[in-house]
DNA sequence: TGTACTGTAATAAAGTCAATTACAGAATGA
DNA sequence: TCATTCTGTAATTGACTTTATTACAGTACA
């Protein structure tokens, strides 16, 4: 997974955390990230499905955090954008007649689970507020 | 980084570890992974550059481990295939006029380094021999 | 009721990754 | 010596994925 969505989602959430209470438009956010507003709205839609963001339609509408920044763990952000596995999906279909090939996906999966656990542990320790606090 | 190269490289190395001493041809390896032999040779070339594999050209040639499987850490494999960052490269060029945008790549990089450190710690604890030992 | 937003679908453009083709060079052994 | 069987590598194609763009309906506001 080279997931370009994680940095985008984190950027969106950081902007909202830094101007808590205000409604930010997708155009404004897109201007900060320097990407297309429609992609921002898609990511917001996804983050909203995970309960991290609330939106208001219509004039003077926009989006804001659904809960305080110190209640949002970066692991939640990871879960929201994560679909593929971390070190690369073995979409490969190894040769079932090879004693190594027929077993390797099982053992790769175990390895990935182990590693992803370590990663989530780190992300769980940091809240969005912690992340924002690093900015001056 | 959805790096499909990590599983491929690990598959190659596992095959070599399981038949230590023998020279394996790229065709044979490609048959086990079920991918193109040229891609195998590319990965072997890369692993060779990192001192993990030795190759012999010409008829009856092939490749084998450059050192015992218990002397190869999975972190070395990771380093060999790793190019992009873990949670997705911010190829984005955020708006330098935005107080968040102009700093976020720096803080993302720090976060990635932290997480990658945790990941490497796990991979360092497991050798290729440990990985192979799981196979029956 | 016009304006400024969101939400979403559909399409196009760009980028990435793997397969394939091609071929030179190296080692073997008949 | 020379055909064979490998590696090494470049170049091209094709498949797939991601992002940008266009388009437009729906919503809220003033």
TrEMBL record, chains A, B:
GO terms for molecular function: DNA-binding transcription factor activity. SUPFAM superfamilies: Winged helix' DNA-binding domain (SSF46785). InterPro entries: Tscrpt_reg_Rrf2, WH-like_DNA-bd_sf, WH_DNA-bd_sf. It comes from the Bacteria. One of its GO terms (cellular component) is cytosol. This is Rrf2 family transcriptional regulator. It comes from Chitinophaga eiseniae.
